[in-house]
Each structure stands twice: as structure tokens, then as C-alpha cells.
Amino acid sequence: MNPINQEVVRRLNAAWPRRATVCMAATVQPDATFDPARPDYPTRLVPFYEHPRFAILDDELRSKVLTWGWIGYNQRTITAEDCVVNPALIYIATELLGDSDWDSMEAIRQTLVDEHYHTLMHMRAVQGTLRLRGLTERLQLPASVTFRRLQAFQQPLQDEWKRALASVAFATVAEISVNAFLDILADDETIQPANSEIARMHNRDEYAHSETLGEISKQLYRRLNDTQKAFFERALPEALRAFVAQDYSMWEAILTQLEVPGAQEIIADCQADSSGRVIMRDYSGLHQFASNIGIVERLDFDFSGTLPKTQTALESEAS
Q1: Which tens digits make up the pLDDT trace of 186-220?
Q2: Is the model more confident about 142 or about 1?
């Protein structure tokens, strides 16, 4: 079992004032670069963009669907931060880390500050998009499949420590694997520049978080007793499957509420034929994490099916 690399954590902590988005008070000014003709969300991430019934819609309606895809992505990111990642980080800081472990405690508290700032960034993104697009209606969009599955997994658990440790498992998967999706948004030059810039700002922090959580989680796993370790090993594959699950619920809600003709047929066709369109997650970091703590062979998850970062993505959530 590989020991925690304390020097890595110290290095990341020392770099925080120079690299963290919140420390730079970085903000995005969407008005300066807004182009009404540009989509808000990448068309290649929309599973039905080339569907015949969607392709014949007028440009205004198709553009509105993409706008709500962007809004939905931001709303799901906010939920991931507030309801998955932050509760797990608080549990780590208050229950799992010892007072003498200053380096890890500082790293977790820095990460919490980052995550709260990400929530503010994505809230501003939603409000700015609504204003610039002149949208007055608010669609009701469902929570992501990842959060719903965390809730479903936690619901029958009687012990508070199990519910908290489940959050840690889901947050670990989120923090170590989110970069691949953010890379796609950050590098896309077809969407609103402000939107890709938000993804870049978020992503810069998440690369550090991935390294931080990878190191600290190794330390935390060693501190668990045998019962807790066995539960964590059961929860981690549940989190992995939740992040790779296909979820059309947001798109179905958007098409239905915007009264897109043939909405149900479009979604049904996507569900029936997903050839060439797969959810993209990079699990190399998670595989390495599981290998480092010596549990990869005990996890009920097939890592052989994980995908490189160049694959097409469907899932519209991040943390």
C-alpha cells in the first residue's frame, strides 16, 4: 500500500494563493464577449442534436434547448458542490482528520473555500445567461442521476457514519474524475467564450483537488477500521456506476417544457440507440487510487471499460 505523499499536499497548499480561482478574485464578464449567434452549450454534447425531429426545428427553439442545457449543467454542478462534495469534505475535516494533521486539514479547508466559490461562479453563470438571453421562465429540471443514486444508496442506511462515508466515496469519485468533462467545455471554441472560461477556471482548481483528494483519501482509508473499510469498498463502486450511468432526464424535461414536437420520440430513440455516444469519464486516477490502497481487485467495478478523454460525452454534470 503506497503511503501518503505529504510533500505533494504541502506543495499544493503552498501554491493555493497563486493558483486558486478564489484567491485571484477571478470573475467572468459575459457581456463583453456575448454573441447571440453562438450556442451556450456544445452541440456535440447533446445526444439528439442530429435527430431528424430536432434538426427540423427552427434555430430559435434549438438555441433555447442548448441554453437550457447550459443552465442545467450549472444547476447540477451547484448541487454536486452543495450536496455531495461539501458535506463529504466537512465530514473529513471534522471527523476523520486529526488535529495534529495540519497539512491535510489545511488542504481540505482550502478545497472547501474553492468549492463554495465554484458554487457562486455557477450561480452567476445561470443568472447571466437568463439575463443575456432574455429568459423569464424557469424550467424545472431534475437533479442529476449521480445525486439521486447517492440519495438512494444512503436512504436505507441506519448508521450516520455509513451515510457520511458514502458521501466521501461519491465525492472522491467526483473530485478525481471531473476534469475530463470540464476539459471538453473549457476547450470548446464554438460556445460562448464566457461559458468556456467558467469551465477553465473551475478546472484549474479541480486538477489540484484531484491530486489533493487522491493523497488524503489514501491516508483516510488507512485510518478506517475493518468494518468501515469494507463499507467504503462497497460504496466506491456504487459511486463509480452512478457517474457512468446514462441519464436523459434533464434533456427530457427541457424538451417537454419547451414543448418541442416529438419530445418523447426523440428521447426514446436516444435511449434505444446510443451507438457512438457514450458518457465520458476518465477513471485512470481512480484506478490508481484504488491500486495505491490495495483494493482494486476487491472493487465490484470493471475498470477495463473506462474511456479516454477524447471520447464523446453525454453527462452534463460536474463538481
Answers
A1: 999 999 999 999 999 999 998 888 888 888 888 88
A2: 142
The answer for residues whose C-beta is within 8 angstroms of residue 165's C-beta and 6 or more apart is 91, 228, 231, 232, 235
d(CA 184, CA 279): 12
Q: Which residue bears the cell 456506476?
A: 241
Position 234 scores a pLDDT of: 95
Residue with cell 450511468: 245
User: Between vectors from CA 97 to CA 91 and to CA 103, what angle results, nearest 5°?
Assistant: 120
The residue with greater pLDDT, 312 or 79, is 79
Average pLDDT, the chain: 87
The letter for the amino acid at 294 is G
pLDDT over 70 percentage in the chain: 91
Q: Which residues have a Cβ under 8 Å from the Cβ of 74 and sit 6 or more positions away?
A: 122, 123, 125, 126, 129
Residues with Cβ within 8 Å of 319's Cβ and at least 6 positions away in sequence, in order, are 77, 80, 81, 84, 85, 115, 118, 171, 174, 175, 178, 206
Residue 317 confidence (pLDDT): 42
- Using a 10 angstrom Cβ sphere, with 0-12 exposed, 13-18 middle and 19 or more buried, the burial of residue 48 is buried
**Distance between CA atoms of residues 226 and 222, nearest Å:** 10
Q: Under a CB-based contact definition with an 8 Å cutoff, are residues 250 and 142 in contact?
A: yes
Please determine, for residue 310, whether its predicted confidence score (pLDDT) is greater than 60.
no
Window from 200-214, 227-241, 271-285 with minimum mean pLDDT: 271-285
- Compute the distance between CA of residue 150 and CA of residue 94 in angstroms, rounded to an integer: 21
Question: To which residue does cell 456544445 refer?
Answer: 42
Checking phi first, is residue 141 left (phi over 0); if not, alpha (psi -120 to 50) or beta? beta
Rounded Cα distance between 215 and 202, Å, is: 20
Cα separation, 176 vs 198, whole angstroms:
19
